[in-house]
Write a structure and sequence with these properties.
Ribosomal Protein S5, domain 2, tRNA processing, globular, 20% strand, 122 residues, 4 strands, single chain, four-stranded mixed β-sheet, alpha+beta, ribonuclease P activity
Length: 122
C-alpha cells in the first residue's frame, strides 16, 4: 500500500474511532469515517499484543493489506478505514481472512460490486 493510503498518526486513528461508525464480526472490527474531500481511501491497522507475538501480528496485517490491495477498485473511496484484529484472526489463513473481511464489507455497504459477482470470483 502506498503511504498516502495509510493511517499512521494517533490523532487520525482517534478521529476515526471517535467520529466513525463501527461494525464487527468474530475476527475483526471495522471503523469507517467519511472523508468526501478525499479521492482515495486510507487504511489503518491495529493488532494487539493479546492476539499474538510480533510474527503473528505482522502476518495478520500483511493478509489484511493484501485483501485491500486486491479489492481497492471495489472498495468505496473517500473514507478512512481502521481494522482491529481480534484473537481468532491469529489462526486464519488468507482465504479465511478475505472471507471474514468481505462479510464486514457487505455489512457496512462499502463493497461496490454485487454479491453475485463475489460468489463467482471465489
Amino acid at each position: 500500500m502506498k503511504k498516502r493510503n495509510r493511517i499512521k498518526k494517533n490523532e487520525d486513528f482517534q478521529k476515526v474511532f471517535k467520529n466513525g461508525k463501527s461494525m464487527a464480526n468474530r475476527q475483526f472490527v471495522i471503523y469507517i469515517l467519511d472523508r468526501p474531500e478525499e479521492k482515495e481511501f486510507r487504511l489503518g491497522l491495529s493488532v494487539s499484543k493479546k492476539v499474538g507475538k510480533a510474527v503473528v501480528r505482522n502476518k495478520i496485517k500483511r493478509l489484511i493489506r493484501q485483501v485491500f490491495l486486491e479489492e481497492k477498485e471495489n472498495i468505496a473511496k473517500g473514507k478512512d478505514y481502521v481494522i482491529i484484529a481480534r484473537k481468532p484472526a491469529a489462526d486464519m489463513n488468507y482465504h479465511e481472512v478475505r472471507k471474514s473481511l468481505f462479510h464486514l464489507f457487505y455489512k457496512t455497504n462499502i463493497y461496490l460490486k454485487s454479491k453475485k459477482n463475489k460468489v463467482n470470483e471465489s
